[in-house]
Write a structure and sequence with these properties.
BirA Bifunctional Protein, domain 2, 2 domains, seven-stranded mixed β-sheet, three-stranded antiparallel β-sheet
């Protein structure tokens, strides 16, 4: 050990090898401290003093060389001011996210919090607690991809996020839950097995269907302009009662009927309704609260706004197309 200590003390330390020497020195110190424990008690004190002296000398030498490196005059370095900077190519926000941000801004300004959850979900949160027990016919609307049958799946809606949130938070609740969801849909111009969804949930005392209607109407006009309206069409969802589909005035023709809206003047963009009492019961909420939920299929909006012939263009990652939409 003493011979190795002398070798370190006699070693020439330069700017080039200082980091390597420092690393080897610290590893050697660990060996020295470990060897002290193997000595007799009578020998430990004397050897420990030698080790401490060695440590102090080596640290001083190493620190002196490092200090010299930090004090080098940078002004003497040659800098070629004629060098051109590299050509930087800036990207652009995805058209789908660009429209989502308009929704997000509206809901944040109106007191909603943004929450997220896992895309790999349990059947318990995705179906059972949303009033769809095993063998319920409504599960056909939520067909999805099973990773481990029958309990682990790719979520079919972000309503599962709302269940997780309600289990951890007491009313009042005012949230939106955006994210990717999965359905067993055939890949065609208007459908993809993966799409972006935005859902919202409001729970509290004295929440009515009028509050739901006002929230949807105001959001549509705020995001798309005063000339765009929304209407509710009675429909069925297992986790809301009463339930409604959300239609908006076709932004392409302004409601005058065209191919985009299939000559109806309206386009279905989502669904909504008052939260089913069974769902509130499942998460442990009392009878003194009620609320509403809504959901938008966000992929519809950029397809309409940018007049895209196919929905899957949004997922092809074609930079040339996205630049034209920017």
């Amino acid at each position: 050990m003493e011979e190795r200590m002398n070798n370190f003390l006699n070693l020439q330390i330069t700017n080039e090898n200082v980091n390597k020497v420092d690393k080897e020195f610290k590893e050697f110190m660990k060996e020295l401290y470990a060897s002290i424990k193997t000595l007799d008690v009578s020998e430990r004190k004397a050897f420990g003093q030698i080790v401490n002296d060695f440590k102090s000398k080596m640290e001083e030498r190493i620190n002196n060389v490092k200090a010299q490196n930090t004090n080098v005059d940078k002004s003497c370095e040659n800098v070629d001011l004629t060098l051109s900077k590299p050509l930087l190519k800036y990207g652009a926000m995805h058209p789908l996210i660009r429209i989502y941000k308009r929704f997000e801004k509206y809901y944040i300004n109106n007191g909603f919090n943004i929450v997220s959850g896992p895309e790999i979900e349990l059947d318990k949160y995705n179906c059972e607690m949303l009033n769809m027990p095993e063998h319920h016919p409504a599960r056909g609307m939520q067909d999805t991809f099973y990773l481990e049958f029958p309990n682990k799946i790719l979520r079919s809606h972000t309503s599962a996020v709302q269940i997780r949130y309600m289990l951890k938070h007491k009313p009042p609740v005012k949230i939106i839950s955006p994210g990717i969801v999965y359905r067993v849909d055939d890949l065609d111009p208007q459908h993809t097995p993966m799409f972006f969804q935005l859902e919202g949930l409001v729970i509290g005392e004295n929440i009515t269907f009028a509050d739901l209607k006002g929230t949807i109407m105001n959001c549509v006009k705020n995001v798309f302009g005063e000339n765009i309206s929304a209407r509710f069409i009675p429909t069925y969802y297992p986790y809301t009662e009463p339930s409604a589909g959300i239609d908006i005035t076709c932004p392409v023709c302004g409601g005058k009927k065209c191919r985009t809206c299939k000559n109806s003047g309206w386009i279905r963009v989502g669904g909504c309704g008052m939260v089913h009492p069974n769902v509130l019961k499942n998460v442990g909420y009392g009878d003194n609260v009620q609320g509403f939920a809504f959901g938008y299929g966000m992929s519809k909006f950029p397809q309409i706004e940018y007049k895209l012939p196919e929905l899957r263009i949004l997922h092809d990652n074609n930079i040339k197309v996205f630049k034209k939409l920017h």
